[in-house]
Amino acid sequence: MKQRVKQLAITEKSVKKKKIVAVVIIMFIFSIIILGVGSKLVFQKICERRETAWPDLGTADDEQYEWLTEAYKIKQKNNEKIVILASDGTKLEGHYYERKKNAPLVIFFHGFRSHSYVDGVPIYKIAQKEKWNVLLVSMRAHDESEGNIFTLGVKERYDCVDWANWAAKHFGRETPIFLMGISMGGAVVTMSSDLDLPDSVCGIIEDSGFTTSTKMLELNCKSSLPKGMPVEVFKIFADVGIKLWGGFDLKEADACKAVSQTKIPILIIHGDMDNLAPLYMAKEIYNSCKSSKEIYIVHGAGHAENYKKDPEGYEKIITTFIKERVP
């Protein structure tokens, strides 16, 4: 009898253990499913291609209307469509506006989910006045360029190299090249500064850029959060999603690290009221830079508002920077 009771007790313990193991396995599988689905949703929201419509002139205020009218004019002006193959085979497209043969060339990179014509209004106007040439490019997964995934600087920094190499080959090594970008485009050009750029790249101009996309996501993830998702969960999903579904690691692209290893002169333009990419990021990049460097802080300017707040100062600092570095 005692032996039977003992056997029953052992059997009950065994059943309990099996139940616990089963529950653990189910919870593990459930967690994997949640992580997989959640990371996929967050990855799609952050990185997957999304066609962004041009802003509507009919709903624009006076300031926006004037800006967008300029952008539409630029789009319609005579230009040459340029198509290149990125190092990974992605077709990238840009539009070249020639003002004067053999003049300095500014290759301009727009912001995240924006358009080169819209973001490129200031540099186009400055270039026209100074008789420089401009190449307004569409970054991968934007507008006419191919690609379904935007890698937040990881692959785009190599696209900068591809564009610069194309320009050096097409126009000749004697043509001075300047890389310029705003917001995400600004981060991308600084992230490319330590790569194998042609010797004809004479300077890099960063407007409203940032240190890393990881920090930008941490600071601004609330706007990307699916309804009801806690911030910490979003960070986990974003990190896993980018690595799992995108196949890249945001740690590979770091503006501070890049500028600490470059010899190319850097100009940083930033607003002291920038809440998206705070001013301290611009200062970190400036302090990390080991090459010739300048920083121009626009008082009262929010994110990517530097030209709007201080058009004269903006034009002067860029014009001086380029003229001083043209051989």
UniProtKB/TrEMBL annotation:
Chain segments annotated as transmembrane: 20-43
Residue ranges that the Swiss-Prot or TrEMBL entry lists as coiled coil: none
InterPro entries: AB_hydrolase_1 (IPR000073), AB_hydrolase_fold (IPR029058), DNA-binding_regulatory (IPR052920)
Pfam families: Abhydrolase_1
UniProt-listed SUPFAM superfamilies: alpha/beta-Hydrolases (SSF53474)
Gene3D superfamilies for this protein: alpha/beta hydrolase
Every AB hydrolase-1 domain range: 104-209
Keywords noted in UniProt: Membrane, Transmembrane, Transmembrane helix
Name the record gives this protein: AB hydrolase-1 domain-containing protein
Organism: Agathobacter rectalis
Origin organism lineage: Bacteria, Bacillati, Bacillota, Clostridia, Lachnospirales
